[in-house]
Amino acid sequence: MNITAQNEIQPSMNATGENTSTALNSTPSPTNDISTTLYIFTTLFFSLIIFFGLLGNSFVMATLIRWPDMRTAFNLLIANICLADLGVCVLAAPLRIIETFRGWIFGDAMCYVLAPLQDVFVAVSVNTHTVIAFERHRAIASPFKQKITLKRAKTVVLVIWLASYVAAGVPLMIFLKNQLAGDGYYYCSLGFTSDKYRIAYKIYLVVLFIVVPLVLQLVRYVDIIRVLRAKDGIYAKSFKTNTLQWKALKKRLHQKKRLVRMLVVIVVGFHLCYLPRAMIMLMREFVPDLITKPWFMYVDLITLTMLYLKHVINPLILCVMSDDFRAGCFTICCASEGHESSRQEVPAVPRAIE
């Protein structure tokens, strides 16, 4: 379905305010070969996102729930990201499949309730990543300051969800409309009364949920790396090598470096998945001629793929780069298969570094 200047019809929304099935909606009918291929690709792709996203994020959540020593303030923030990713896999991705073939079948009321949730899920991920960056900076650059407690972390998580709903969900609800389209289906879509509102809304999303978090996280992690390198030099000058004190400090510093390295990879993966989609959204507004290019449809599909892959890659990164999560997931797998001997070979999951 084409987007008009005065009434922007976008059947599938994501956190960048973009149509998540632009290529599908730009085709006249699913009867031609290209449209049929795209419909099949969309169904298969979102089905894989649902399966692997549920599998990976469920393992991470189960690991944090099963071992009491893993229930730290820091791991609660990690769990919050997994919870938001699970929300996309359980709710947003299935809605995309249904919407692709049947439009919006849930009525007017659910249009205002369900449609904004994907934006809320992504905003929760963005805000939690930012909080983690500040918390890690506190732990490493100012270790003597009072650290965040588990009780306080629960309050922070609640505030993140409320703030994300207010900042991402409520503005989206203002412009949502459940409208009948030319194909005979209803779509829960954005309906802007003017171009100025549409452009302002998209700039608001990009600045608040991409540019500002990226800058804040970048500043914090750069300073964290600087502090870790400085501490490495201080330890080398202040303590004799091979002493117990030196070895203990080096071991803890090494653990902190590994944790920061893992977080940096997660953050880089997050922004690599979202920045291209944001660029596509801005290109639609400020370089509209590109939409007519034959290659634009494929770029649109690639950025869409990257957008949803973000909700799958976090558990993979955690299992590859964290011994704690890898051991926990392996133990849960063995337990589910009933291999008692394998469970005994897996070491207890240690407490995460604070």
TrEMBL record:
Annotated keywords: G-protein coupled receptor, Membrane, Receptor, Transducer, Transmembrane, Transmembrane helix
Topology in membrane: Multi-pass membrane protein
Main subcellular location of this protein, as a coarse class: membrane
Residue spans crossing the bilayer: 38-60, 72-93, 113-134, 155-176, 199-219, 259-283, 295-313
The keyword Zinc-finger belongs to this UniProt entry's keyword annotation: no
A Pfam family per the record: 7tm_1
Coiled coil region boundaries: none
Compartments, as annotated in UniProt: Membrane
Boundaries of every G-protein coupled receptors family 1 profile domain copy: 56-318
Keyword Transmembrane helix carried by entry: yes
Protein name as it appears in the record: G-protein coupled receptors family 1 profile domain-containing protein
Source lineage: Eukaryota, Metazoa, Cnidaria, Anthozoa, Hexacorallia
